[in-house]
Amino acid sequence: MFLALDSHEQEIANAAADFLGNEYPLQRLHPQPRDAHDLAPFCELGWLGLAAPEEAGGSDLSQVEEMLFFLEHGRVAGPMDVYAQVLGVAVAAADGALCASLVAGEASVALVVEQREGAVRIVGNAAAQYAVEVTPSHAALYAFDGSGCDEVLCLDRSVAMSIGAPGCLQEVLRLEGDSVWRKAQIDLCAMMVGVAESALAMIVAYAKERETFGRAIGAYQAVRHPCSDMAVRNEAARSQLFYAATALREGHADAAMQVDAAALLAQRAAIMNVDTNIQLHGGIGVTDEHDAHLLLKRANLLSRLAGSAKRLRATLLDVASSGDCDPT
Amino acid sequence: MNLEYSEQDNDFRARARAWLRDNIPQQRRPAHGEGAAQFDRDWQRRLYEGGWAGVNWPKEYGGLGLSALQQVIWYEECARAGAPNYINTTYVALMHAGPTIIACGTQEQKAFHLEKILSGENLWCQGFSEPNAGSDLASLKTSGVVDGDYLVVNGSKTWTTDGQHADFQELLIRTEPGSERHRGLTWVICDMKTPGITVTPIRTMLGDEHVNTTFYDDVKIPLTNVVGALGAGWKTAMSTLSFERGTGFIGDQLALFERVNQVIELAGRTRLEDGSLAIEDSGIAGRIAQIKADTMAIRAMTFAQIAEIESSGGPGPKGSIMKLLVTGTAKSLYHLVAEILGWEFMEFNGDRNDNLWSYEYLWSWVSTIAGGTSEIQREIIADQLLELPRAR
CB–CB of A66/A86 below 8 Å? Predict the structure, then answer.
């Protein structure tokens, strides 16, 4: 039992933080609000295949390492194409050639976020060759033709969003069950925790330098206490995320419940912390030039993908199936 | 990261489970009074004689010398077996006084006190807060004047939990006249039978008298009872408090998980006034799920903290995060139960054994205030973890 990063895990986290912080700082989204559909920098360093099999060009690592990467990704609201690509890799894991082409970025993957009332909603590259759909009951990889899709502006301007007819998707691979969904939830939770931690770091830095009534705002309890509450939400969300990711890797009986709990806590940390961050900044916090709204908008995108409150609470309220402290 | 227990851990768990199964007291603990204190002493003696006292105390001081993780396993098994709650009249002795004497005490103090603490022979109470020094502990005024080989103590302490049952007290006093704040304080062992001590009960809103105000009128305490150096009491006191905020509540965190599952079952069989089940109310269901998620996070944070103690040697300021989350989550849970239960909630005879939920509801404020209020915990987080500028 060791619920902290070992040295190998710490190395991966540091490498991800360096790469994303240098190449994709949050501020990149001011001059150019939309991320380019360019996976090459991620392919070169092997980030797309962390958990993919070696024969497909992956690193054969686990959910835990992938989670550490997405934690840093969330901190800078990194390109969402990476998330869709990693899910595509997961669905194609058993198909060596296809998986390899996705790990290498030779074919790209968009994300199907909704199919209802005869329409398909896509987030990501409308020119991608594939689209991936991940739900609690199944995961599917489709051949995708986005030429007939109509673009809709997304609240999170860093991503492309479009709506097409069902015919734009042709199923290629389908996996029944929730295995990819649980993995996707962990990645989403990691990104949400990254957003939530980024929001706290942002307001703490500002609270040390911004002055009102002759002293730094960070000296007022009206600012200090909400910041401390942000730290509590982050600590709970991060610890549960680490526990859930490890439980998933080790195949624990209660892993699904652990992941859903992580999702509820990560959603709360992200949504409430981006709110508090803007509020405590005051006027500058609602301007376009500031970074705060970028986190707010990303938090909404991620939270929507991780599952509704109603869905997430089902496993938690099922006492009969919830594991207890018994490891045997 | 891994969640796997070692062979020694599993072996320890199996032995703990077997022993607890055969040794849990059959009779209920009296709600309060001398009977409750005697029950606690008896249970502690049984643990001591069975070789289970002081799981993570060093072996040289009579403990088992086991890891923090095995301490958690012990609490998990206690919770599972329905063993008596360890937050009882032995708590200050085992969780405050003992660890402080181990960390800062003299050989004579260790030899005299530690075994009597482990065996349940001596109960302890705390003497830190004063009527005019609560959250601002460093403003305390109870004085000790050196007179030959003694300190002569005058003043008063309050919130002395179980002071009426205690044999000894950990007493924090001002021993340098004119000193301010945390300078000039001394941590001293006070024998509660010393002449000049008066213990006056404070009746709480729960209807019981577990806390007291303690008055000191020329109370003579030998200088050999000073723990740490004369005038260095703040340092000694902080070693005690950081211990409590770090790992002192691990057992509660685990017990809370069982309690949440009880509430889920309660909501699954309790009907609201329109005849529907409480669990079918989406507002109630959403709140229980959030509380359960927090409770699971508390467990994960416990393991994360143990890993941190292993790596860095101390719990650090994250103990304040733990206390805020544990006490806040418990409060949310009992407030929710108050809504689910309807009129049954209003039945309260003051006995925790009879009216658990109403009792815990009232107790929830004790938790968010005692041992440093939630507001003080937020200040500690802002100062020590976030390093925000101070106004104080």
Answer: yes
- Cβ–Cβ < 8 Å for B126, B241: no
**Rounded CA separation A298/A74 (Å):** 9
What pairing do the DSSP bridges indicate for beta strands A138-144 and A161-164? unpaired
Do A92 and A98 touch, CB atoms closer than 8 A?
A: yes
Output the six-digit token pair for A113.
Answer: 């976020």
ipTM of predicted complex: 0.95
pLDDT digit string (tens) for B320-335? 999 999 999 999 999 9
Task: Return the SS3 of A325.
Answer: coil
Instruction: Note whether A239 contacts B5, CB cutoff 8 Å.
Output: no
* Interface subset of B 264-293, CB within 8 angstroms of A: 264-265, 268, 279, 282, 285-286, 288-290, 292-293
Please give the mean pLDDT across all residues of chain B: 93
CB contact at 8 A, B317 and A231: no
Nearest to B66 by CA among B50, B47, B53, B84: B53
What tens digit of pLDDT does each residue of A125-183 get?
999 999 999 999 999 999 999 999 999 999 999 999 999 999 999 999 999 999 999 99
* Residues contacting residue B365 through CB under 8 Å, at least 6 positions apart: B205, B331
Instruction: In whole angstroms, give the CA distance from residue A173 to residue A139.
Output: 8
DSSP state of B144: E
- Tokens 């004085």 sit at which residue? B143
- The radius of gyration of chain A's CA atoms, rounded to the nearest angstrom, is 20
Three-state secondary structure call for residue B12: helix
Contacts of A205 (CB under 8 A, 6+ apart): none
Q: What secondary structure does DSSP assign to B165-227, as a single string?
A: T-SEEEEEEE-STT--TTTTEEEEEEETTSTTEEEEEE--TTS---EEEEEEEEEEEEGGGEE
Nearest CB partner across the interface for A204, out of B9, B296, B386: B386
The number of angstroms, rounded, from the C-alpha of B134 to the middle of its chain's C-alpha atoms is 17
- Which residues 75-104 in chain B show a CB within 8 A of chain A? 76, 79-80
Q: Are B190 and B151 in contact (CB under 8 A)?
A: no
- What is the per-residue pLDDT across A78-128, written as a single tens digit (0 to 9) for each? 999 999 999 999 999 999 999 999 999 999 999 999 999 899 999 999 999
Owner of token pair 């088992």: B64
Per the structure block, which two tokens stand in for A209?
Answer: 């330098």
Contact B231, B174 (CB under 8 A): no
d(CA A152, CA A207): 37
Tell me the pairing of strands A119-123 and A109-116: antiparallel
Q: Which residues contact B114 (CB under 8 A, 6 or more apart)?
A: B57, B61, B62, B98, B101, B102
Residue B61 CA to residue A236 CA, distance in Å, equals 35
- B2, B254, B301: residue with CB nearest A1: B2
Q: Which residues of B are catalytic?
A: 244
Minimal C-alpha gap between A214 and chain B (Å): 12
CB nearest A319 (choices: B265, B304, B375)? B265
CA distance B279 to B288: 9
Under an 8 A CB cutoff, do B377 and A242 touch?
no
Q: How far apart are CA B230 and CA A315, in angstroms?
A: 56
How close does chain A come to B70, measured CA to CA in Å?
11
User: Can you tell me the distance from the alpha carbon of A48 to that of A99, in angstroms, rounded to the nearest whole number?
Assistant: 11
Q: Which residues of A touch B266 (CB under 8 A)?
A: none
